[in-house]
Predict the structure.
Amino acid sequence: MIDIESVTETLCTISGISAEELENYSVLIQNSASVVETSLIDKSLENDSRIIYLAATRAYYNIMLTGTNADDVSDFAAGDIKISLRSQPAESALKLYQEAAEAVSGLLRDNGFVFRGV
C-alpha cells in the first residue's frame, strides 16, 4: 500500500498547502494513491519516490479541480480597477501530473484502448 503520509508530505511541498488544510482532502489523497497503486506493474515499487510523487501530483490536480483552494488573483488595484489573474491552477497541476506520469510510464500498466481484431 502506498504510504499516504509520504504522499501528503510531498503534496505539501509541491502545493504549498499546509498539512492541516490537506486533512480536508484526505479522501482525494487516498483515492489518488489507490488509483496509482492499482496501475502499478510491480507492487514492490509502491513506495518508490517516483510513485509517491505521481500520487501526490494526481491528488494536487484533483484538489485544484475542486476550486476550493484556488487563489487565482495575483494583483488587485482599487484606483481604475485592475485585477490580474494567474494562470489557472488546475492547468499547472495537470502539467505536473502529466510529467510525473510520463517519468514512470514504464512502471505502470497501460489502460488505453486496444483494438485486437474484427
